[in-house]
Amino acid sequence: MSKDDKKAPTIQLIAVNRRATFDYELEQRFEAGLQLIGSEVKVLRNGKADLTDGWVTFDGNQAFVRGVNIPVLEGSPYSHEAKRARKLLLHVKEIETLRRGIERDGMTVTVTKLYFKGPHAKIEIALARGKKAYDKRESLKRKEADKEARQAISAARRRER
Question: Could you tell me if 48 and 144 are in contact, meaning their C-beta atoms sit under 8 angstroms apart?
Fold first, then answer.
């Protein structure tokens, strides 16, 4: 089997933190593995997770994601804690890049996506700078203008038919 015969791993999206793009200006993004236990994987395979409160902390040369809610597996006597800290599987250089970013003024590391890439659970994290209130208003105005433009284009296409 040659390299050309290998397929790219399929990506199964579990959850997206849309609030992150509204509250933060996302800069550099990283893909990290996630250390999970069996009941957490079963719940994620069912597509249930909440990333809105997720953030990353550091302990020595290790990174942990906190605040990510993976609900408890129903009917299981040996389940997991829903919002426990989970270890991120990152290279040391990536951890150092994130740590340097946090040391800069106003930077944080937030969770943006959770997905399966092939058989592995992956999480996308991003270095982010908090938006000011006027930045959020600008984002809303831009979003509303894009929506109106799409509606106008679709209305014009309908009239052409």
Answer: no
